[in-house]
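User: Reviewer 2 asked us to show a designed sequence for the structure in our supplementary figure. I'm pasting the structure tokens here. Could you produce the per-position amino acids so we can include them in the response letter?
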């Protein structure tokens, strides 16, 4: 950490010209890794950025990070930027060398105490740009939303646009009503979560119906259950939204089942 250096003119630093991925590690093994690399490729190509190295080299890097840090449980963060060049909005003339950085963080993911109690969520305006399907490091709007949540004693902010929840500041958003899971459909308005994708498949196999459509905060207040998904939180129950208790303030049966299924497949 003390030896890694990034140039002052790196476009990631100057203009948030970078994309990233966060993959979970459980029992020393990567979770949903292929999906994360697929999304990285898509983020890079949508921004017309180059790969920093081959996919095989990235795989090796991830495995080396686990080995050298003796990582049993936590996450690997990796980021690619367009590289360093004289500051300008347009792409640098000629090829710049993409910058690649990565690190690990030890985290208690499987036995996260929040999963037992459930978390609190507030709603907050969605201030982001219109290409939220690209996982960029341009995170100021989510930062403001998350901070607003923390300042109100909640763990996540559900961002609202045109009267409907788009997603969490760092997670996808779900409610459960009459046994059906409701979550917003994929589009440029939200990030296609890798955990969301895995969960959709597991739910289908288990016969849990998922309806993909936008929902309002009012619908969420009246839901039987609510939850969020992300690579580092997996499937996380929500027990309060804007101060209103959901499902009697306890994680409900559908979310508990889905978390269990996800953990089982992830090798927990
Ligand atoms: N939406 C947003 C805005 C996010 O930042 C994240 C976390 N990367 C997610 C959804 C969940 O995606 P994933 O399951 O791939 O972590």
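Assistant: Here is a per-position design you can include in the supplement:
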């Amino acid at each position: 950490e003390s030896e890694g250096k990034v140039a002052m003119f790196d476009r990631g630093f100057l203009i948030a010209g970078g994309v990233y991925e966060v993959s979970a590690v459980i029992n020393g093994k990567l979770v949903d890794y292929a999906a994360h690399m697929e999304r990285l490729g898509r983020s890079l190509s949508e921004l017309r950025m180059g790969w920093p190295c081959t996919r095989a080299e990235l795989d090796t890097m991830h495995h080396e990070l686990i080995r050298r840090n003796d990582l049993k449980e936590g996450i690997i963060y990796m980021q690619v930027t367009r590289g360093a060049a004289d500051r300008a909005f347009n792409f640098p003339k000629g090829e710049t060398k993409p910058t690649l950085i990565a690190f690990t963080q030890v985290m208690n993911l499987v036995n996260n105490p929040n999963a037992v109690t459930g978390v609190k969520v507030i709603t907050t305006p969605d201030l982001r740009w219109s290409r939220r399907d690209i996982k960029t490091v341009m995170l100021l709007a989510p930062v403001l939303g998350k901070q607003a949540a923390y300042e109100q004693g909640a763990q996540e902010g559900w961002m609202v646009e045109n009267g409907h929840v788009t997603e969490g500041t760092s997670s996808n958003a779900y409610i459960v009503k009459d046994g059906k899971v409701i979550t917003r459909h994929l589009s440029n308005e939200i990030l296609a979560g890798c955990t969301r994708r895995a969960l959709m498949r597991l739910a289908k196999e288990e016969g849990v119906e998922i309806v993909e459509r936008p929902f309002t905060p009012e619908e969420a207040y009246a839901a039987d259950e609510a939850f969020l998904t992300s690579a580092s939180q997996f499937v996380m129950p929500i027990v309060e939204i804007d101060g209103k208790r959901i499902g009697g303030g306890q994680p409900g049966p559908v979310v508990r089942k889905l978390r269990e299924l996800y953990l089982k497949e992830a090798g927990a």
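For the response letter, you might also mention the following. The CA atoms of residues 83 and 98 lie 4 Å apart. The chain has eight helices and 13 strands.
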